[in-house]
């Protein structure tokens, strides 16, 4: 009787002890699991870093191999292609030099310089004079000038309506060739400017009719139309100063005899004297004076 109850109590106590131990071990197991998960995450991160480093190393190795092969090929071909490479290098240097000289030449023109080269006969020089208007290069003219036995123009392609001999005498070319070239350049550039203005009027201002012009572009007659009265106006531009692109005289003819003396047409007269003709016409159109 005494043994059975004692055995039952002891068994119960053992069971309680086992349960207690089991409960104590559970937090430790959870803690161990979390620790293992963190370690696994760290190892995965380290693995990814190692993969990236390996890939980078492989890429660098491929690049080095490619460069080594290229250098090897270059060294092998150097002897065979030495003359070709030399010619290519020389060509590149010449192209760079050509571009540099062209830029210098453009700057030379912009500051009013002249291109001068020695003639093949060695007794004179060839002078090139470039013309331009509003930043656009136009025609280039050349003179071949003999220096011996005396200074004289031997050949040229100056337009015949430019008084070359008169300009040479006027500027005393034999003693001061620079003054002569400056005067000739002003005549040529003024002619080029007047010619370019006339071209713009014909091509871009279709409502304006060009009635008359001469080869020197020193006389220009235009037909305007007044919008309100539908009256025609003949405008004569006279460029008596052949070294300028602007007219020295402007004259209007109209059936309405009072029109040329009206304030707005006096303003138009001043505008045409002070502004290139194509720009003056555009302004007159904007003001509604002509169509």
Please, could you describe this protein's structure?
A hairpin with a 5-residue loop joins β5 (209-213) and β6. This protein has helices at residues 3-78, 82-110, 164-170, 177-204, 263-274, 277-286; strands at 115-118, 124-133, 136-146, 152-156, 209-213, 219-226, 231-238, 249-254. Helix content is 56%, strand content 20%. A 4-stranded antiparallel β-sheet has the order 1-2-3-4. It has a 4-stranded antiparallel β-sheet with strand order 5-6-7-8, with helices on one face. By secondary structure, it is an alpha+beta fold. The chain has 6 helices and 8 strands, in the order ααββββααββββαα.
The major pleated sheet works out as: 4 strands, antiparallel
Order of helices and strands: HHEEEEHHEEEEHH
End-to-end distance: 139 Å
Helix share, percent: 55-70%
**What order do the strands of the largest sheet run in, or round the barrel if closed?**
1-2-3-4
> What gyration radius follows from the Cα positions, in whole Å?
47 Å
What oligomeric state do the depicted chains represent? Answer: single chain
Task: Give the low-pLDDT segments.
Answer: 1-6
Number of helices: 6
> What's the overall average pLDDT, rounded?
80
The amount of beta strand, in percent, is 15-25%
Number of strands: 8
Structural class: alpha+beta
- 3D shape: elongated
